[in-house]
Amino acid sequence: KGNTEWWKKATVYQIYPRSFMDSNGDGIGDIQGIISKLDYLKELGVEVIWLSPVYDSPNDDNGYDIRDYEKIMAEFGTMEDFDLMLAEMHNRGLKLVMDLVVNHTSDEHEWFVQSKSSKDNPYRDFYYWRKGKDGKEPNNWGSVFSGSAWEYDETTDEYYLHLFTKKQPDLNWENPKLREEVYKMMRFWLDKGIDGFRMDVVNFISKVPGLPDGELQPGQLYADGGKYFLNGPRIHEFMQEMNREVLSKYDIMTVGEMPGTTPEDAVLYTNPERNEVNMIFTFEHMDLDSAPGGKWNLKPLDLVDLKDNLNKWQTGLHGKGWNSLYWNNHDQPRIVSRFGNDQEYREKSAKMLGTCLHMMQGTPYVYQGEEIGMTNVRFENLSDYEDVETMNMYKERSMLGYAHEDIMESIYVKGRDNARTPMLWDDSENGGFTTGTPWLRVNPRYLEINVKQALADKNSIFYYYQKLIGFRKELDIITEGNFKLLHRDHSAIFAYNRTWNNEKLIVLCNFSDQVQTIEDEALLHEIQHADVLIANDEVYEKTLTLRPYDAVVYYKK
Ligand code: TEU
Ligand code: CA
Question: What's the pTM?
Answer without folding.
Answer: 0.98
